[in-house]
Specification:
single chain; 183 residues; two-stranded antiparallel sheet; 5 helices; 8 strands; 26% strand
């Protein structure tokens, strides 16, 4: 009987240890050169002579082109209490792209912070937090009101809280998208 209790404890401890290790997110930091800004949350980079599209992780900017996603965004934002229309959203999307383009010129060096377990989205783009001059541009975009938080899958609470705090600041200052929120 003692053997079974001991075995049970070992299995429980091993399972708990595996769960703790498994839940830790491991990151890879990669240096890249910007080749193009596609929109406010997507860039193209060159890494060791290979080209990749990079989608900014944890954020979503407005569309800068008239497409199906823009139409879905308008419906969702009106449901969320925004006084918004297609022209306003397109302008915000263009503003986000312009802002990012002003920072990230061709051949700018950036650091990509990639989650080792979830490196790509369903379109094959790298998912990353993008750092330029030691600034997390993902958070900068949210703080300026040029992006909203957008969490897909598991995001550690310490990272999620940084984005939510930046969004709260933008909302309180009514900048970017938040100037169109009722109340």
């Amino acid at each position: 009987m003692n053997f079974l209790k001991t075995l049970f404890r070992i299995i429980c401890i091993t399972t708990l240890s595996f769960s703790i290790v498994y839940s830790e997110i491991q990151y890879e930091f990669i240096q890249a050169k910007v080749t193009e800004v596609l929109d406010g949350d997507t860039i193209k980079v060159n890494i060791n002579t290979n080209n990749f599209a990079v989608r900014f992780f944890c954020i979503d900017t407005m569309e800068s082109r008239n497409n199906a996603k823009l139409k879905r965004d308008i419906i969702k934002m009106k449901q969320d209490g925004f006084n918004i229309n297609k022209l306003k959203l397109l302008n915000l999307g263009k503003e986000a792209k312009f802002f990012l383009s002003a920072i990230l010129k061709k051949d700018s060096s950036v650091t990509l912070k990639l989650n080792i377990r979830r490196r790509k989205d369903k379109y094959g783009r790298l998912l990353a937090e993008v750092f330029y001059n030691n600034q997390n541009l993902n958070i900068v975009m949210v703080r300026k009101g040029l992006a909203r938080t957008y969490f897909i899958g598991y995001v550690p609470q310490n990272i999620k809280s940084q984005y939510l705090m930046a969004e709260k600041e933008a909302r309180q200052e009514r900048v970017g998208i938040w100037k169109y929120l009722y109340n």
